[in-house]
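Note to self: keep these together.
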Amino acid sequence: MSRVISSPDAASGITGSVKWPQLYLGLAFTTLATLMLELALTRIFSVVFYYHFAFLAISVALFGLGAGGVFSYVVAGWRGNLFAKLGTLAAADGVCVVASLWFILSRSNDLGYVTLGIVYLASALPFFFSGAIVSLAISEAIERVDRAYFFDLAGAAAGCLLLIPFLNVFGGPNTVIAAGVFFGVAAAVWFNLAGSARRRAAAVLGALLLVMVIVVNFKSHLIDVRYAKGQRIPQERFVAWNSFSRVGVHFEGGWSIVIDADAATGISPFDWDRITPEERVGLTRSGPGIAYAIRPGAKTLIIGAGGGYDVARSLASGSKDITAIEINPIIANQIMRDKFVAENHRIYFRPEVRIFVEDGRSFVRRSDEKYQVLQATLVDTWASTAAGAFALSENNLYTSDAFYDYLTHLTDDGFLSFTRWGFDPPRESLRLISLATDALSRLGEKDFPSHFMVVRGDAEKIGEWGAQDTVLVSRKPFSAGDVEKLRAELGPSRLQPVYLPGDAPSNPFGQLLHSSDPEKFYASYAYDVSPVADDRPFFFYTVQPRDLRDFLMNANVASADYKINRAVPLLFSLMAVSLVATALILVLPRLLLRASLPKQKGVVTFLWYFLCLGAGYILIQVALIQKFVLLLGHPTYALTVIVFSMLVASGAGSFFSRRAAADDASLMRVLGAVAVMVAILAFGAAPLAATAAGWPLAAKMAVTAAAIAPAAFLMGMPFPSGLRRLERRHAPSVRWAWSLNAAASVMGSAGAIVLAIYLGLRATLLIGGALYLCALAVIAITRRSREA
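Structure:
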């Protein structure tokens, strides 16, 4: 059905009838391309820079969308047909996508602040144009904003759904270019609405040209990652992408599997038909292998099988029952069981070995078996630093709740063997002690000193990268025989004893284990090594709260602590930038664009409503993603299911918002109901994860979507309802509200991580729900001001 648009302002350039389905289609393709680009950039940033820049990519997108909303004031003042302007912006988006990708991939040096700023601006440019398109389209279709916002969210949901297959099939760079293709399709739709056949044909031709680029690049890799972390990537024999990693294999004294050009795992080179006694002994006399010197032939569970070295250690000791878990299908299937099967001598095909491709924690939770040795060695070394902690599964491996799961899956003579980097003073390995003691206390164990043995390999490298601490934690106290077996291996293995049962508390390990007041020890220690739970799964973040200001101001950028916690300054800088951006968006329409502040009573106050919604929605979304990683078993599944489900349900809520939130009273009821539903999720997510732990993945996804859909459905109503109310009071402020909402999302995305680190995910969810109550208060205040 066509009709004449009632434009919010005179500069729209709309003079004829509009085909509404095409407008909705153009909006949907724009948001599809935008979300696909945003999530694809998280993968590119993780590889080219560091894991925490994956989070930066999301903030870049939200910042660009907010700035684009302000820019829409300028575009609205340009002469010409509105849809021709939207088509031009969408076409520019397609060009900017390719240009931004080239710029990011060409960075051959590590990031300084100047380079970071340039990358930030270059990456934000496509979102800047997208923000202008969406802001203009929704403000022009304000009379049908419930439907327009529905297609906005439906398009974004489609982009989320397409991301995984595109990354798995085409890889990171080609997925970014594919977003440019969809921008080209959107441009063609907008030009068709403008009645410009020539421009429509040009947009289609541009989209087809990008499709050809993807086809050629798929085979030739002309556009690919050449530099990462400031270094040129060595020549690789094999490269593959999936939705959560780029995996390459190269030879450097042996075959190495490198994940996202940073975390590495060697490929086991041992020929089990010709292995020598010396090789067998050497495997069990390393730090990670010491478990098998104590418990030879053990029934073993290995988390993070990687290139097979832990499997080799267990085999060398005579184990006949080895269960190995590898989360990355590229490593487990393409490398170890296909492309490099000759190099690893078919270790994954050994009759003693069973391989499962899934998250280790999820496997443990659903398993009904018990093991003598449960091992995890440097699992994805850099994947879960404080940098990207909110979105990566390895955090859920290192919590007190996880250690409770591990300990309950041990036989009475079983123990855990966890290896982490050794530091002086200790951080990661000492925190393993705190996690395990917390879990043991829940199992009724009290004699903590007798449950632990700690050894250090390559102790001479303690001042640099290379020392490794192996922490052994027993379900029941270690026997005197176990301790003597380990002591007998210390000399031949050149391992250094750090703590053994019976040792005096001469170092932090002994001091913590013998402490009568662990909380006092944690408070006085130089680093935060207190136990972290599933609700606050930031194992690698070790900056004491009292030292945060000093760390932000004075951290040595060359230090290990800075590399591990380098996202912390970024998070706080991002919060500062987002505060400034929000303030600018508040004043720019008046100061720079000559748009006068509305004189109608309560309108300026009402803009706070959109700030609350923007911050509240993103707080809830970020916290839910991390909450449901534990149930779904993989961060990619959590991201996809949560974002897709929330977008679809919120879109449906938008569609029904005209009836369900027709007046202020009903809108206030909706806002209150959101807070209640979010509170239920905050307290119900953990029990749900425990109940559904053993269910099939499809069932887990379905129950996750069903759990969050009611809240997300309600969360889709307030924004379009607020825009309709704002349009009636002061139509030019609609685009302003859109920009403020996006700017608040930037602030909320950074704030969500800070809140989760210090308060936990449950508190973050509750604060997100409370912001909807703040929005309710704004409605109540403006309602009274109108009635006064």
